[in-house]
C-alpha cells in the first residue's frame, strides 16, 4: 500500500514510516494540516494516517475538506484524544477507523490490512498495466506474460513508482525520496543495484521480448511501451 502519514511529532512519524517501509509499504510524511491536505488531494494514496492535533489546520478539518473535495481515500485517525466524543466526531467526519495513542505497531498494521481488504477500489489500488506487465498493488503480485515475478519489497516499490509514472522519467532523487525515504547520496550505487536486479527479472529473463525498462542517461529511469514493429 502507499500510505500518507500526517503527523507533526517527527519522532513518531519517523517510527511509523520506518515500520511501514520495513513491512513492504511505501510511506510519505506530512507535518502540518495544510501539507497533509495538499498531498492527500494530489496523490493517489491507499490510506491516510491522520493525527487530529496538527499545526496550521486540525486533522478534522483536513478530513472534512478531503471529503468535500470528493476524495474518498480511507483515513485512519491516530490521536491522543481518547474520549468517546472525539472518536465519534472523527468517524462522523469520514474516518474509517480510530486508533488511540499510544498504540502497538502490530495493531496499526492489522488495521491497515483490514482497510486494504475491505475497501473496494481504494485510490491507487487498481491493477497497473504496461504491455504484458501487470502489477496488483493490493495483492502485491507482479506478472509479465502471465508469469509471476519474484520481487523484493524494494523492487516492488521501485516498479510501482515507475508504473505510476509510465512514459515519464523518474529521477534517482525521486526514487530515493519515495522508496528509500532519504535524500539521494550521489556517491551511493544502491539504486543502480536495485534497478539492475529489477531489469534482470523484468526484461532479461523474458528476452527476446522487448525491454520495458530503460535508463535515460543523466536523468533517471523510465518504463514505456515497446515500439510497434511491422
Automatic annotation (TrEMBL):
Portion annotated as DNA-binding: 125-225
Location of 4-aspartylphosphate modifications: 51
Domain Response regulatory: 2-116
Record bears the keyword Mitochondrion: no
UniProt keyword Iron, yes or no: no
InterPro entries assigned: CheY-like_superfamily (IPR011006), OmpR/PhoB-type_DNA-bd (IPR001867), Sig_transdc_resp-reg_receiver (IPR001789), WalR-like (IPR039420), WH-like_DNA-bd_sf (IPR036388)
Listed CDD domains: REC_OmpR_CusR-like, trans_reg_C
Annotated keywords: DNA-binding, Phosphoprotein, Transcription, Transcription regulation, Two-component regulatory system
Protein name, as recorded: Response regulator transcription factor
Organism this protein belongs to: Hymenobacter segetis
Amino acid at each position: 500500500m502507499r500510505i500518507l502519514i500526517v503527523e507533526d511529532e517527527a519522532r513518531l512519524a519517523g517510527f511509523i514510516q520506518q515500520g511501514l517501509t520495513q513491512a513492504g509499504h511505501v510511506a510519505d510524511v506530512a507535518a502540518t494540516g495544510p501539507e497533509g491536505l495538499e498531498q492527500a488531494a494530489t496523490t493517489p494514496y491507499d490510506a491516510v494516517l491522520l493525527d487530529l492535533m496538527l499545526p496550521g489546520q486540525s486533522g478534522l478539518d483536513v478530513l472534512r475538506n478531503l471529503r468535500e473535495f470528493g476524495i474518498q481515500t480511507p483515513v485512519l485517525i491516530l490521536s491522543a484524544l481518547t474520549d468517546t466524543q472525539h472518536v465519534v466526531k472523527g468517524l462522523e467526519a469520514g474516518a474509517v477507523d480510530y486508533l488511540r495513542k499510544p498504540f502497538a505497531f502490530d495493531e496499526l498494521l492489522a488495521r491497515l490490512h483490514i482497510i486494504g481488504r475491505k475497501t473496494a477500489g481504494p485510490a491507487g489500488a487498481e491493477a497497473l498495466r504496461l504491455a504484458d506487465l501487470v502489477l496488483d498493488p493490493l495483492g502485491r503480485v507482479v506478472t509479465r506474460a502471465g508469469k509471476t515475478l519474484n520481487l523484493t519489497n524494494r523492487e516492488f516499490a521501485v516498479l510501482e513508482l515507475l508504473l505510476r509514472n509510465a512514459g515519464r522519467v523518474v529521477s534517482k532523487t525521486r526514487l530515493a525520496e519515495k522508496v528509500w525515504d532519504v535524500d539521494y547520496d550521489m556517491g551511493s550505487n544502491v539504486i543502480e543495484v536495485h534497478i539492475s536486479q529489477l531489469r534482470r527479472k523484468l526484461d532479461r529473463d523474458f528476452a527476446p521480448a522487448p525491454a520495458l525498462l530503460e535508463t535515460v542517461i543523466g536523468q533517471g529511469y523510465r518504463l514505456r511501451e515497446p515500439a510497434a514493429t511491422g
